Amino acid sequence: MKGLDEYVTSSGVRVMRVHYSADPAKDPDTPEGMRWLQNELKGIPGGMGSTFWRQEYEVDFTASDGERVWPTFDSKIRPRITYEAVDIEPHWPVYCGFDWGIACPTVLTAHAIESLDRSYQIDEIVMKDTPEKPLSIKSFADACKTRYWWDQVQSVVGDPTIWRRLPKANETSSISIGDMFADEGIHIAKGRNEPGVDMAYISMLNTHLWADLDNPKFMIASHCVRTLKCYSRIRKKAVKTISNNDKAPSEQIISKDVDEFDANKYIHLSLGFTEPDELRAVPGTFEWYTQQLEERGRIEANILR
């Protein structure tokens, strides 16, 4: 029957789905149904393409709010910014982005820097706290230290909220997540996460790192599947707040399942990957050592004058 179908959920429950077109008075293929549809659409921003309509009227529970930041990521962008394998040179510095999660996964992404014109995300470590396998700071730290690239790590940059101090169990003193990682030998610097930073990072990717997809400056290993999936589903929406009530709505990303995006954001912003004319050599790269030698030469020349 039109407008009726059934499906089985992942837990094995059979469910009947009833669409409005099952009612002849609401079936858009009839004159009466078309009048009903046109009347229902009044006052719904975005009409039939809106998330509200797709969820409430089309019974599409997969519909997500907002619009995708990179709608062609999987078909056009991803194939050009991914790589299968690259030889990581011993002198390439590795920098890590970190995002702590309780309900969400805890994530660390590792980036090898070849030069200002080329960096690679070489790995991702993703662990989630579950009743069957509780996540501990020690277990996550140990997982990091076993990676082949760990000895090349120059710094780890993460969510600044991990430095909020929490009361210790059965004690009057307090400690932060950052302190606990430091106790395990992983020192995490505070990343940037102020309002507007998410859209600034997206702009950085679009206008600099991925501006030329024939020669991208930032590439992601194909085995970093969670990171790639995260970028493909990032969404944004226009938001009006009290502070900008008289202005045009500002764009914000929808903060859900964006852990790998956040981890990469912290490290990219900390390295200064903004506009080309503002870039400085990343510490540890060949360019950086050359820059230091040139600077030392200028200082010595001035002393001898």
Q: What spatial order of strands do you see in the largest sheet? A: 4-12-7-6-5-8-11
Order of helices and strands: EEHHEHEEEEHEEEHEHEHEEHH
Question: What's the N-to-C terminus distance?
Answer: 94 Å
* Nearest-integer average pLDDT: 82
Total DSSP helices:
9
What percent of the residues sit in helical stretches (DSSP H or I)?
A: 25-40%
Sheet-strand content, in percent, reads: 15-25%
Q: In terms of structural class, how would the helical and strand content be classed? A: alpha/beta
Any idea what the radius of gyration is?
25 Å
Low-pLDDT runs of 5+ residues are 275-279
Total beta strand runs: 14
* Gross morphology: globular
Describe the structure.
There is one protein chain. It contains nine helices and 14 strands. It has 305 residues and is α/β, with parallel strands linked by helices. The strands form four sheets. The chain has a seven-stranded mixed beta sheet. Strands 3-13-14 form a three-stranded antiparallel beta sheet, with no helix packed on it. The chain has a two-stranded antiparallel sheet with strand order 1-2. β9 and β10 form a beta hairpin. About 2% of the residues have low confidence.
